[in-house]
Amino acid sequence: MGHVLTQAQKTLADTGAPGLTAVNQLDPRTRILGACVFGVVVVALSSLGALLAALVVSAAFLLLSRLPILPTLKRMAAMDGFIFFMLVLFPFTVPGHAIFSVWGFDASWQGLRQAVEIALTANAVILALMTLVGSMEPVTMGHALYRLRCPEKLVHLMMFTIRYIEVLREEYLRLRAAMKVRAFRPTTSWHTYRTFGYLVGMMLVRAIERSERILAAMKCRGFSGRLVLLQDFVYTRRDAMFGLLLVVICATLLRLDVTWP
Which of 124, 125, 130, 126 is CA-nearest to residue 23? Predict the structure, then answer.
């Protein structure tokens, strides 16, 4: 399913990253369960010290996974852009003790604290997911979810969605290139709006035609409703050690959350 994608498109890792790291030696099921448990624990934290420690743990996962640091941080910055305005408004909307004022609007310490808590929580959880799960190929992740008793139809839907988002993007770029060759320049006119409407319509038509061709090709290759992975998942001692270490880390974070003032 991912034979036309480069390694950088399949995962967060680039082609220069080592193929064997401390993270991708783990069983994919262990990585998914570990990311879920760690995410639930981090969301349950409320003290700044515990959340900062959780972010440090996520950074340690990043170093162990050997993902390219700058591209990974850029992806995190893109996520932070969605919550930036909410974090800016929090100090002005949450009642509490005023610490400064902007144009007559008081910013409270309680609101600033909540904004910092949300930022630390989001970054710690997203970074852990990107390092533990994001460095996994979509097909491998789908099979791991199926082995964890996730509904098979949902798993297949996720795998095809991940794969063919890239196909639709290529179709879009091809159509946009054809429009530029014909000297199309977008403006605020009805012609531009109609042209983009035709663009969306052509993408839908080509997506349907592509899906029919893909279905016929899969049936010719004996597709029976299940994607086969030429790899067996086996829990090893390394997975047990990682699980034990993660339990200790989560327990330490919860303890720190209780004792931190």
Answer: 130
Asked whether the CA dihedral 199, 158, 82, 59 is positive or negative, the reply is negative
74 CB-near residues (< 8 Å, 6+ apart): none
**Confidence at residue 245, expressed as pLDDT on a 0 to 100 scale:** 92
Reading the block at residue 255, the tokens are: 């303890």
User: What is the reported pTM?
Assistant: 0.73
C-beta of residue 132 within 8 angstroms of C-beta of residue 34: yes
| 235 within 8 A of 244, measured Cβ to Cβ | no
- Alpha helical stretches, state H, 108-186: 109-132, 138-147, 152-181
In one letter, which amino acid is 110? Q
The series of mean pLDDT values per 10 residues for the chain, 261 residues long, is: 44 46 82 92 90 92 85 81 77 70 72 83 90 82 83 82 80 86 85 87 84 84 71 82 92 89 63
Calpha distance 183→250 (Å, rounded): 58
Q: In whole angstroms, what separates CA 174 from the centre of its chain?
A: 26
Question: Which residues have a Cβ under 8 Å from the Cβ of 62 and sit 6 or more positions away?
Answer: 69, 72, 127, 130, 131
Q: Phi and psi (nearest 5°) for 227?
A: -90, 130
Q: Which tokens sit at 159?
A: 């795998």
d(CA 91, CA 109): 7
Structural contact between residues 110 and 97, judged by C-beta atoms closer than 8 angstroms: yes
